[in-house]
Structure formats: structure tokens, C-alpha cells
Amino acid sequence: xxxxxxxxxxxxxxxxxxxxxxxxxxxxxxxxxxxxxxxxxxxxxxxxxxxxxxxxxxxxxxxxxxxxxxxxxxxxxxxxxxxxxxxxxxxxxxxxxxxxxxxxxxxxxxxxxxxxxxxxxxxxxxxxxxxxxxxxxxxxxxxxxxxxxxxxxxxxxxxxxxx
Amino acid sequence: xxxxxxxxxxxxxxxxxxxxxxxxxxxxxxxxxxxxxxxxxxxxxxxxxxxxxxxxxxxxxxxxxxxxxxxxxxxxxxxxxxxxxxxxxxxxxxxxxxxxxxxxxxxxxxxxxxxxxxxxxxxxxxxxxxxxxxxxxxxxxxxxxxxxxxxxxxxxxxxxxxxxxxxxxxxxxxxxxxxxxxxxxxxxxxxxxxxxxxxxxxxxxxxxxxxxxxxxxxxxxxxxxxxxxxxxxxxxxxxxxxxxxxxxxxxxxxxxxxxxxxxxxxxxxxxxxxxxxxxxxxxxxxxxxxxxxxxxxxxxxxxxxxxxxxxxxxxxxxxxxxxxxxxxxxxxxxxxxxxxxxxxxxxxxxxxxxxxxxxxxxxxxxxxxxxxxxxxxxxxxxxxxxxxxxxxxxxxxxxxxxxxxxxxxxxxxxxxxxxxxxxxxxxxxxx
Lengths: 163, 431
Description:
The complex is a heterodimer.
Chain A: H1 5-41, H2 49-72, H3 88-119, H4 133-158
Helix pairs in contact in A: 1-2, 2-4, 3-4
Chain B: H1 3-19, H2 24-39, H3 45-55, H4 62-75, H5 78-90, H6 96-109, H7 115-132, H8 137-148, H9 158-167, H10 171-200, H11 210-235, H12 241-259, H13 268-298, H14 301-312, H15 316-333, H16 336-353, H17 358-372, H18 380-389, H19 393-416, H20 419-429
Helix pairs in contact in B: 1-2, 2-13, 3-13, 4-7, 4-12, 4-13, 5-6, 5-11, 6-7, 6-8, 6-10, 7-8, 7-18, 8-18, 8-19, 9-16, 10-17, 10-19, 10-20, 11-12, 13-16, 14-16, 15-17, 15-19, 16-17, 17-19
């Protein structure tokens, strides 16, 4: 594998995450807009019982998928007031410790959420009839993505030239 | 391990990790999982279930839409038109551009519901303009931070949506409860700008001609219609919070794409991606704070806090004062959303015991926490504006005091004159 290959894969992953994120957010806007339109103007002829359920599912997916994108950018809200006063090596040590803690937390969610995630493919949501993975799957997938991004950050902080 | 020790571990680890640069959401999550492990009574899968359950709340669907509406307004030229209009309307009063900052934020507050969105939108336009006109950069940042606080007080409001969802209160009533305090906040801040500018002799804009005034007004009419539609819709009982948020997005998109034409369809994915990231930052905190709040509940930490507070006094006005002081301090250190998810369920029980109107208390609580956004050490609006104005925190703090004092005066007014918050919701929705 050439030195530039990981970078290409990471760029491809970032582009994929962005495109999927925008599509999900666009779908959320479209579903809720349609739901409101139907409720106001077409309520005599039709109703969208599934709209609320799909909107909630899309909110979960956009929130957690977006959280993975923000983690990739290392932009989740953090208080740097205290650590900014430390020397660079101490800051680097704290960042890496923070990354490792985050990975441990995410792995707890991945392992503990696995049975729910697996079973959600066979259970059905009440209104739409879709598998409940539309609710329960978002966090699991996002946690896996966040583990990848956090590990990349930790590596970059440990050996800045490698990534 | 005994309960007191577990509660201590929960809070110390969450605060400790947050101050060691672990992102706030993860600090709450790690502390919660740690205490769940120490307790050993519950499976760790509870954390996963609570995170999903907290975010998947129907009422929260409105939040991404208000953030999206704010982004469309900024990039679609709506903010710029509002600034031009406000310059003509109030820029000639003592305080000039700082008066403009207050008025623009008041109008923006009627559309977006987020102080961060409003601060980003108005700060990027007004801080460079104020510096160019001779205002100190720290003063410019401080007035915009204070004015942006109106965002979640004047309806619509993301803060009230979260508070209402947690406490099962009517969001429409909370929205209307914030309307009068929001307007008073604007007037008080304008008064502070007037006095400060006169004292330091800061410049004001020339008085516009009638023709110029009319032209800027006409140009701003499509933008000014949006708060009227949203607030009118909520007041008239036509919209729910979610519907109002959708109308805000649709209207802002139509005005930006078709009327002002400052934004093209090609830019829409970029705006969606920005909004997605803002939504995600907020909701990861909501998810982790949901687990944290649940751990507090099973530890019965709330009972201890309620018992302690009710043991201090039996007088409602003293308990309100104590809560205000407590949350002014906590708001400086803990994220607004986390504060709400952790403490709102407990506090509703406390205020009910004292016979305090829940809508009244909701407005006090949200206003109090919003003030924390403009104060160090953990004020998100402050951080954002420090970057825009390119100043240090020390410089910002020197200019912040008059505005902070103004907001604390307002908080006291809202606390001790309940009619300011309950009169309008009772008028519209009945008692």
C-alpha cells in the first residue's frame, strides 16, 4: 500500500459521509414539509400517519450521522480554557488520553448496542411497518464511524507525520 | 459503593473530564457509564437505549429546522437586508451601530430561535462594520453577545422547545411567555447602548433621508414578514412549534432563492451540511445528557437536592433568588442543554412545591441559562465572537459588564414580576 493510499480512502469516506448526511437532512426537510403541507391543505383527502415516525427516524440518523462528521472534523464542543495554559507536550498527552476515553466509551455503546441493532432488523415500526433499525441503527453505525475517526485523531496526535 | 459517593463520582468525573478537554457530550457519557459500572445494578445497554430515546422525541424535530432557517437567512442575504434596514431605523440614535445590533438581533430572534445562530449571523456582518466605524472590537463583541441572548427568549425558541419537551409543558405557552421579557430585554439593551455611547462619545450613523429610509424598508419587507408570519402563526394558534420551524425554512428559502437571489440552488447542499453539523453537535449533547439525567434519577440525587433546597426556606421569593444565583453560576460552567436535561425535571418538582407558575419558572430558567452563554469560562456565544472580533477573553470581559448587569436586572424583573411572563400566554390560551 503506498503512503498516499490511506489519505485517498479517508477522503473518500469523508465525501461519502457528507453526501449521505446532506441526503438525510434533505429527506428530513422534505418529509416534515410534506407532512405539514398535507395537514394544512390535503387533510380532507389524505393523511400521512407514517410521516411523524419517519421524521423521528431521520432526526436520529441526521443527529448521530452528523455527530460522526463533526467528530471527523474534531469539532465537538470542548472546554480548552484550562488545557490551553499547559505546555504542548502536556496538551498532546491530554488530547490522546481524551481520544482513548472516547474510543472506550464508543466501544461500550457498540458492544452493548449490538443485540438491539441486530434485532432491530426483524422488529417492525408501528406506523410505517419498516424495520426498527430506522430508529435503533443510527447510533450504532455512528459509533463505529466515530471510533474510526477518533483512532485517526489519536494516531495523528501520537505520530503527526503518519496521517 | 454508597449513593453519596456515586453522585460525587458522577459530577466530579463529568466536570473534571470536560475541563481536561474531553468534549462535553463525551464527558457526560463517560461519567454516566462509569457510574453505571460502579452501581452494577443496570446493564450498560441502558446508556444506548437512553441516548436513542432522548433524541427520538417528536418535539425535537423542530430544532434542526430553526438552525437551518438561521443559516439560510445568513447566506441568503436576509441578515444583510435587516442590518441595512435597522441602520436606517435606529443607527442615528446615540449608540449607532450597537443599537442596530440590538434591533437586528430582536428581529432575528423572531425567526431562528438560537442565540448562536443569531450571534454568528449578526457578528460576522456587524463586528467588522463597528470596528471600521471606530467602536472598540471588545465592545462590539460584547453587545452582540448580549443581544443574541434574545434569540431563545423571543419566540420561536430552541431553548423553550427543549424545556417544554423535558417538562411536558405547552411549548406555545412557553413561547408566548418569553415574548414580553424578550422585548423588554431589547429596550434595556438599547438603553445601555445609549448611555455607554454618550459617555464614550462613540459615533452614530447620519440620519437617513425619507427616500433612503423608505427604500431600505421596502428592501427588507420580505425579510421582516418572516417573524410576523411565525409569531402571528403561533399567537393565532395556527402553527405548532414544528410547523412554525418548517414555515421558517420554506419562507427563508423562497425569499433567498427567488426574491433576493443571493443564494443559488448549488449552495443549498453546503447550507444543509452546515446545519447538519450544528444539529449533530447539539443532539450528541442532548443524547449524553439524557443518560446523565437518567443516572441522576436512579441515584435519587434529585430528592437530595429538592430536600436541601426546600429545607433552606419556605418562601417562594427566596427560593427563586437561590435558584437564580445557583444557575447563573452553573450556567457559566455547564452547557445550556445539559443543564436543562439534568436539572429541569428536578426543578419542576421544587417550583410546584412552592406554588410557582411552571411557565413563569420555565422562562426564568431558560433566560438564566442563556446569560451563561455570554460569560466566561464556558460561554459558547462568547467563544464564537472572540474569534470573529479577534480579541482575548480579558478584553471581552472588560466590555461585557454593563450588558451583563443589564441582563441580570432583566432576570430580576422577570423573576419578581410574574405578569411579564404569564399574562400573554393566559390571554391567548386561557388560564
